[in-house]
Structure prediction request, 555 residues.
Amino acid sequence: MAEVRVERVAVEPETVFAERSRLVEGVRAYGLIVAMWLRSTMAYRASFVMTAVGNFLVTGFDFVTIMLMFGHVDALGGFTLPEIALLYGASATAFGLTDLLLGSMDRLGRRVRDGTLDTLLVRPVPVLAQVAADRFALRRLGRITQGLLVLGYALLTLDIAWTPLKVLVLPLMVLSGAAIFGAVFVVGAAFQFYAQDASEVQSAFTYGGTTLLQYPPSIFAKDLVRGVTFVVPLAFVSWLPALYVLGRDYPVDLPRWVAFLPPVVAAGCWVLAGLAWRAGLRAYRSTGS
Amino acid sequence: MRLYAVVVAGGFRRHATYRVATFAGVFTNTVFGFILAYTYIALWDERPHLGGYDMSEALTYVWLGQALLMTCAMMGGGFEDELMERIRTGDIAVDLYRPADLQLWWLAGDLGRAAFHLLGRGIVPMVLGALAFDLALPGSPWVWLAFLVSVALGVVVSFAVRFLVSLSAFWLLDGAGAMQIAWLAGLFFSGMLLPLPLFPGVLGEVARALPWSSLLQVPADVFLGRYAGWDLLRAYGFQAGWAVALLLAGRLLQSVATRRVVVQGG
Prediction:
């Protein structure tokens, strides 16, 4: 009984901030928690540098693999190494941004299992912001750095007939791509309210998704390409905008202007992710321990 | 011996408890299997017989990699976190009092874990891969048996490496960094990213000589029937040699480390 009363008292401050939108409040809380984890990370600087370098290397192996492949061939699925580097760099940078901002979401299952999620529920701060900022790991900058380096290599070596629209598509692609991956992370976390120890399913879509996007769509079966275009719209992260920049056709018949859709698709994904998160949170039953 | 058999069974049962996680893992292995299979098809379309493998052998290699990823703990996921935590907290002192050998105890538990992952996370992706692609499955039961022996040796080599690295926690207290480096090496040099014959020149030769090639490259080549007769024995000898050398190194380091614990007074 006592705990229930504590809960009520703790929830009350929420009404104080009622006029402020939940979104602003969530972002502010996220920032505060992140700042706290940053301070704690910087207490062990040597450890931070080592893990950041490790993060850089482990993600770098993906591109090393592609380079080893190009030691044997000149083109893969009709794409040259710089062209694949553009696909790779866009996907890896977008995923790196999401991983930095929301990478701890896959810990939700553990929190549901051991009951520590309850602690987050009684705080007057949106749960999503708390889960996302939990154990914020700056070492994940390693992945972004690696993605940006490959992207830079692609842009330096590719011979692209630049137009203002093509220049515009680049930042649009990376930011919307990060948002689309973010929505996938949130849906995956919402799923963990039901399947508590199934965080690997999430990895299939997030890590699997970014691996998929690092290769040109021409090498995959048509049905798989359709699936990641219309069902889980990962194709909008990098394939569609990057193929526009490269002046190549999309393997599944789609008009060229779909290259500008990623922000719209990202917004749509976040609406669905928000609904999924709410449904998941509402279905949550504490372990009762 | 009966004690260690019980520990093997315990390791098996412990991992068999996580049923949803196992399903989730099978799903992930299958998704990655499909993605990698298509990249290999693109590669072998350009260069048939690359590295001496034909297309169906290359695809078989992909699915063997997914099947053995957890079995041989190529990206970690075994006992090492727990052992390092016990060393860090000092619980290891209790383990040293037990009338069981530390290294054998953890080896037995890891063998049980590997056996479960071979059954739980290896068979289903392999079957799905065989349904979706044209795989080169061995016709002779002897090749399957030879493959299982090679996998078992690979698991022991994998254990020996991870045990060695775990012991670094006696000196570093936080062995996470050392373990990360070991995982990176395992991922790269086991042939998980790309078959080792595709590595260029000296890098390829070095990679094939390092212990990690016992984790995937050697078992996969046994499965693909590349070793027969004396060659098979030589392949086993390579794996067993590394296993014995690394286990002995672990034993030596363990005795140095335990003396250190006693000096500290526990």
In short: The interface with chain B takes residues 47, 50-51, 54, 57-58, 61, 64-65, 68-69, 71-77, 195-201, 203-205, 208, 211-212, 215, 219-221, 224 of chain A (CB under 8 Å). The first helix of chain A runs from residue 2 to 11.
